[in-house]
Amino acid sequence: ATPMALLAGTGRASQLGILIKGPQILEDTRHVDTILLDKTGTVTTGRLAVTGITAFGRRTEAEVLALAGAVEAGSEHPIAKAVVEAARAAGPLPQLTDFHSAPGGGVRGTAVPGGGTPLALAAGRTGWLEANGIVPAAEERAAFARQQGGGATAIWLALDGETAGILSLRDTVKDGSAAAVKRLKELDLRPVLPTGDNAAAAARVAAEVGIAAQDVYADVLPEDKVAAVRQLQDAGRTVAMVGDGVNDAAAQAQADLGIAMGSGTGVAIEAADITVMGSDLGQVVQAIELSRRTLGTIK
Ligand code: ADP
Ligand code: MG
């Protein structure tokens, strides 16, 4: 395509709410044959709801929710937003200090509930909890597995280094995601679903939108998303990575084409070659169609 055509293509894209870093990006887009779609917030709404709470020992469900809300208040993760919303609806949150966030793992901090003695809080996935020296008992793991049944996402709450409870959450697939995946396949792009979430939750979403079971990569840490991109590239694929979060930025940078959904953070947009301003996966398809049309490879 001529430089003029490419420039016209990027101009047309911006009218559609699609920001393309430079005309060269359109050329890159043409070679992409594999498209990684981050699950939470990209394929799904990312608006989760708390659907279950389990309290261990002398803890109550109300305490588990309030303390999880306190430690999640500093996080922007969709899980955190859901927990905070549910906790706030039940009452005021304990104050938190020393907040730390481990992307793809969990969050921790210190609370002083009711002005009593400080309490170390941690909320997150199993592997991250264990890496912090907190190992759930067998019956607690069984409860965790039950709560994740049917495709929910469960997280642990730990207090002073001991497991205190479990919260489970559910997410819904965005309206346009199944149609977008169908169109991607028609464009000869192989959709792949990498996610830090558990296998059952990932499989449920994949089945709903039409992504093949063997193209689901579950329990993937942010740094492993980079490795997944590299592996596909080593296998000769040209890879696009679509994500909405800061935890997707490194994989987007590694990919041949990084695509950010506009609802995500500034960091992810920095790493992206293409940014779609809306939250519909259909806009990603539009971006690809537009570039191919600009290059005259489809009508
Ligand atoms: P995804 O790839 O689906 O966007 P992430 O990589 O952000 O997911 O997170 C992966 C997993 O890490 C989550 O499913 C959850 O178990 C845990 N996690 C991440 N952030 C938090 C948080 N703020 N609170 C609790 N758990 C978290
Ligand atoms: Mg995400």
**Helical amount:** 40-55%
CATH class of the largest domain: Alpha Beta
CATH architecture of the largest domain, please? Answer: 3-Layer(aba) Sandwich
* Broad shape: elongated
Q: What structural class should be given to the helix and strand makeup?
A: alpha/beta
Instruction: Show unreliable segments.
Output: none
Distinct small molecules bound, one entry per kind = adenosine-5'-diphosphate, magnesium ion
**Head-to-tail CA distance between termini:** 14 Å
Summarize the structure.
This protein is of the alpha/beta class and 299 residues long.
Descriptors for this entry?
single chain, Copper-translocating P-type ATPase, seven-stranded mixed β-sheet, Calcium-transporting ATPase, cytoplasmic domain N, 2 domains, 13 helices, 299 residues, Rossmann fold
Description:
- This is Copper-translocating P-type ATPase.
- Belongs to the cation transport ATPase (P-type) (TC 3.A.3) family. Type IB subfamily.
- It comes from Arthrobacter deserti.
- It is found in: Cell membrane.
- This protein is elongated.
- It has 13 helices and 13 strands.
- It is of the alpha/beta class and 299 residues long.
- The strands form 2 sheets. The chain has a 7-stranded mixed sheet with strand order 1-13-12-11-2-9-10, sandwiched between helices. It has a 6-stranded antiparallel sheet with strand order 3-8-7-6-5-4.
- Helices cover 42% and strands 23% of the residues.
- It has 2 domains: 165 residues, Rossmann fold (3-Layer(aba) Sandwich), CATH 3.40.50.1000; 122 residues, 3-Layer(aba) Sandwich (Calcium-transporting ATPase, cytoplasmic domain N), CATH 3.40.1110.10.
- Helix 1 packs antiparallel against helix 13.
- The mean pLDDT is 90.
- It binds adenosine-5'-diphosphate and magnesium ion (MG).
- The site of adenosine-5'-diphosphate (ADP) has 23 residues, from helix 3, helix 5, strand 5, strand 6 and strand 7.
